[in-house]
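Annual report, structural modelling task.

Input specification for the NDP complex:
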Amino acid sequence: MSAKLIDGKVISEFFRVEYKLRVDRLIERGVRPGLAVVIVGNDPASQVYVRNKARACESVGMHSEVHALAATTSQDELVAFIEKLNANPAIHGILVQLPLPKGLDDRAVIEAIHPDKDVDGFHYANMGALVIDESRYPPCTPFGVMKMLEYENVRVEGKHVVIVGRSNIVGKPQAMLMLKAGGTVTVCHSKTDNLPRFTRDADILVAAVGRPCMITGSMIKPGAVVIDVGINRLPDGKLVGDVDFESAKKVASAITPVPGGVGPMTITMLLGNTLHAAELKAGLVESARDTMLA
Ligand code: NDP
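The model returned the following structure:
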């Protein structure tokens, strides 16, 4: 068997076409959705991510601003900067590129973003809303995974979903979204004993670990849907996921590639969340986002 490829670039494009129409509708009402991306310091990888996010905004007609602050920026200066963005009516979403340089407190900075503009969905208020199924801004990567499954008509309801990784930005919010969609969810992590015992029972397997090719074909149930969130750069510069693609594709029924799988969806969901923030502000939609997948 060779698995069907779940192409994140194609699915992203599908959503972006819809977003563009919604942006146009807002512009007709005099509102251009705006995203401010704040980056502190000069980490080259982060600068590439930030530029990609800004470009993606422009591709659907949204306004974007990149604020590159010096590595010497203090916590107080950064918080004061975010407060100005909180008060700026042209900005509907604020994203601070993480991790911040040493000496700055990621969590305190996230809490400085107004929850209405927290399009990454990491503020306590938005994380709490996610847990009680009232999320306005589901974190972009796990939300992108749900949208990929929806696009591919993969039913989550009744399925055993195994997530490897329990980070606050991927594994945990992914578990919440899968639960909401009716999955029976197992979350594995570095302390899990006998990981293959769980992965081999997964109907839907999500790998979000950060270890190159650690999930091999022999750890996958025949016919499972495999979603590879991991992005790992090998010494030769090649990008690979957490799943060993070559052995996994012989066992799975569908699989995401790396690159070109979950990555493009993450940026697209950021656009979706920013657009949703602008629509909320304009009174065009009610509060929760449609994250249901039955
Ligand atoms: P974290 O490092 O925050 O979390 C990794 C998780 O993997 C932890 O929960 C850890 O367990 C678990 N883990 C580590 N080793 C093992 C192991 N041997 N067996 C089982 N579980 C293990 O990473 P992130 O969640 O931030 O990111 C995960 C991956 O996804 C990375 O490769 C990252 O680059 C990528 N990523 C991709 C995105 C995209 O857009 N495609 C967006 C965000 C991340 P424990 O909690 O016990 O330490």
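The first strand starts at residue 4 and ends at 5.
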